[in-house]
């Protein structure tokens, strides 16, 4: 994961989740029905604060939001992404109606 993080983000060290959108970059038109790939780092996921299943779900939500164009580079973007993460978490837990 550290190698992928350095290669694709220019950041040294591992990270918990990386998202590789298929709608950007080379080959972006190959399959318009696919969003891309989300890669989780098992060592980072296992070290999370809650149950493993909760941490995996939280990181999958985060990664999929990146595939959908959400970012957290600025405070405004981070707040927007955080709200959407919470909304999806609650929906998946059955706490929010349709």
Summed up:
This protein is mainly alpha-helical and 98 residues long. The chain is 48% helix and 10% strand. Helix 3 packs across helix 4.
In words, what does this structure look like?
- With 98 residues, this protein is mainly alpha-helical.
- It has helices spanning 2-9, 42-46, 52-67, 75-92, and strands at 17-21, 36-40.
- A two-stranded antiparallel sheet has the order 1-2.
- Helix 3 packs across helix 4 (75-92).
- It starts with a helix and ends in a 6-residue tail after the last helix.
Number of strands: 2
Report the principal-axis shape: globular
How much of the residues is beta strand, in percent? 5-15%
Please summarize the sheet with the most strands: 2 strands, antiparallel
Question: Termini distance?
Answer: 36 Å
Helix content: 40-55%
Strand order of the largest sheet: 1-2
| Radius of gyration over C-alpha positions, nearest whole angstrom | 14 Å
Query: Helical stretch count?
Result: 4
Structural class: mainly alpha
Low-confidence stretches: none
Mean pLDDT: 88
Order of helices and strands: HEEHHH
């Amino acid at each position: 994961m550290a190698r992928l993080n350095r290669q694709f983000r220019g950041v040294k060290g591992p990270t918990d989740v990386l998202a590789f959108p298929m709608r950007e970059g080379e080959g972006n038109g190959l399959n318009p029905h696919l969003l891309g790939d989300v890669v989780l780092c098992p060592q980072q996921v296992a070290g999370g604060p809650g149950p493993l299943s909760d941490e995996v779900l939280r990181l999958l939500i985060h990664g999929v939001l990146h595939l959908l164009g959400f970012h957290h580079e600025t405070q405004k973007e981070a707040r927007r992404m955080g709200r959407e993460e919470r909304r999806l978490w609650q929906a998946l837990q059955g706490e929010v109606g349709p």
